[in-house]
């Protein structure tokens, strides 16, 4: 085999063999971290194409591009992103982080697929150009500098159709999407600014620009219904899906039935009160370093590995024992 074509064939085989050896390692280095699990309650799992089977999520679990988060009944989780934005994922939910890029000097872009369940999103840093886009089975939600609650599935249908503005419409149990603009509370100190959400379905866009306004997409191929002002009862029902364990504990006259890290607890309680909680991102230093990672975290916890806790007024306090 001395002919030129034979040598080319052998070279091609060698290149393919080499690439098969290098690819797994190269792929492993492409895991791009976006934040971590600031709080976890109940049965929450994570899966991606690098794992043979789903793993149980623990507090401080690193979250990256392509990760799919699943929560079971009476379970919830909060993800803190590098720009201090946060996802509150409610019970019976499934969410995938498609892409997230953050530069402290330029801003943040986020693309997420919300497959089912309950979700609360708080926009973080107001510096730079910040955008977020959440896709659902029936539409797309564009978010600019604000806070929203979302439901996808049967609960979205039940709550929306009990609102007088919506009434009885043809909905799909798996595709129905309800979006509520929450906005910051009057006493927020975190820099969260009032923004808006664009809710798009079937080529039609509805703009939510005041806290309390909502829009409902009943199924794929349907235009959004709204905007309308959701009732207090409807808002409470949405919140019960996003924070089921908090709602259950309060209903029983108790407190949170699991001890959560200080920053995470502050963020969750702040979400209920209409604030953004504290400004500790709970991420800690990035060790290991990912080549060409656009999300190299530069902020973290106390250098000694302790959480920076806050009281109900957002003032820094010493963390109680056992929550670090």
Automatic annotation (TrEMBL):
Protein name in UniProt: FecR family protein
Keywords for the protein's UniProt record, in alphabetical order: Signal
Top-level taxon of origin: Bacteria
Disordered, as annotated region: 280-324
Span of the signal peptide: 1-28
InterPro entries assigned: FecR (IPR006860)
Organism, scientific name: Alterisphingorhabdus coralli
Residue ranges of every copy of the FecR protein domain listed in the record: 67-152
Biased composition (Low complexity): 288-308
Keyword Cell membrane: no
């Amino acid at each position: 085999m001395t002919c030129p074509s034979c040598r080319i064939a052998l070279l091609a085989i060698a290149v393919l063999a080499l690439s098969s050896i290098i690819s797994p390692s190269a792929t492993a280095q492409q895991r791009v971290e976006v934040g971590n699990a600031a709080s976890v309650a109940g049965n929450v799992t994570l899966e991606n194409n690098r794992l043979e089977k789903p793993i149980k999520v623990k507090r401080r679990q690193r979250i990256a591009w392509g990760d799919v988060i699943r929560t079971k009944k009476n379970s919830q989780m909060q993800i803190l992103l590098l720009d201090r934005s946060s996802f509150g994922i409610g019970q019976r939910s499934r969410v995938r982080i498609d892409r997230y890029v953050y530069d402290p000097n330029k801003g943040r872009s986020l693309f997420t697929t919300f497959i089912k369940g309950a979700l609360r999103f708080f926009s973080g840093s107001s510096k730079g150009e910040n955008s977020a886009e959440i896709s659902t089975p029936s539409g797309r939600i564009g978010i600019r500098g604000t806070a929203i609650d979302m439901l996808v599935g049967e609960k979205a249908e039940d709550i929306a159709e009990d609102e007088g503005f919506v009434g009885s419409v043809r909905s799909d149990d798996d595709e129905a999407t309800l979006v509520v603009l929450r906005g910051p509370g009057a006493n927020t100190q975190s820099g969260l600014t009032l923004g808006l959400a664009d809710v798009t379905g079937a080529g039609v866009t509805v703009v939510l620009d005041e806290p309390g306004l909502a829009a409902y997409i009943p199924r794929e191929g349907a235009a959004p219904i709204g905007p309308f002002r959701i009732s207090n009862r409807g808002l409470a029902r949405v919140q019960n899906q996003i924070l089921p364990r908090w709602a259950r504990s309060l209903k029983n006259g108790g407190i949170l039935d699991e001890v959560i890290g200080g920053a995470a607890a502050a963020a969750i309680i702040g979400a209920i009160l209409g604030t953004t909680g504290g400004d500790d991102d709970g991420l800690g230093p990035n060790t290991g370093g990912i080549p060409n990672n656009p999300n190299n975290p530069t902020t973290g916890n106390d250098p000694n590995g302790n959480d920076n806790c806050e009281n109900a007024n957002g003032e820094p306090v010493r963390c109680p024992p056992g929550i670090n």
